[in-house]
Write a structure and sequence with these properties.
Elements (H helix, E strand, L loop, with lengths): L2 H10 L5 H10 L2 E10 L2 E10 L2 E3 L9 H11 L5 E5 L8 E5 L5 E3 L2 H18 L1
Antiparallel strand pairs: 1-2, 2-3, 4-5, 5-6
Helix pairs in contact: 1-2, 1-4, 3-4
Length: about 130
């Protein structure tokens, strides 16, 4: 998936999406392995996530919490500066974020706005 398409998807979201979290994670370097097991005649599927080759407890919920969105920012732009704000807007854009003097990114929630700002940094890096 192209970064521009993922940014557009984030801009259209009204709330957190685990499916989009997975797309973001895979885009920024997370890897996953799926294991299937059989216990007592029941099959189960277990997804194991890795970052930089190390097994992690789980993929962060980038689109759900500001803390997780900030983890994404740190992956994309370590030691960055920026800000995030929220308001009660009537147009559905309640979150705004900016990183390293980049564009102001608006979305339905502050976490979504941070994700968009982080991915815009990644998009600009790939264009260079």
């Amino acid at each position: 998936m192209a970064i521009a398409d993922l940014i557009q998807e984030l801009q259209n979201l009204k709330h957190a999406s685990r499916e989009v979290d997975v797309k973001i994670g895979l885009l920024v370097g997370w890897q996953r392995r799926v294991e299937y097991t059989q216990e007592n005649g029941e099959a189960s599927r277990n997804v194991i996530w890795f970052l930089h080759g190390e097994k992690t407890a789980r993929l962060p919920r980038f689109t759900e919490t500001i803390d997780s969105a900030l983890q994404l920012v740190d992956l994309v732009a370590p030691r960055s500066t920026g800000g995030v704000s929220w308001s009660d807007e009537t147009d559905g854009h309640c979150g705004t974020a900016v990183i390293n003097g980049g564009p102001y990114c608006r979305a339905a929630t502050p976490a979504l706005a941070l994700c968009i700002a982080a991915l815009k940094i990644r998009e600009a890096e790939e264009e260079d």
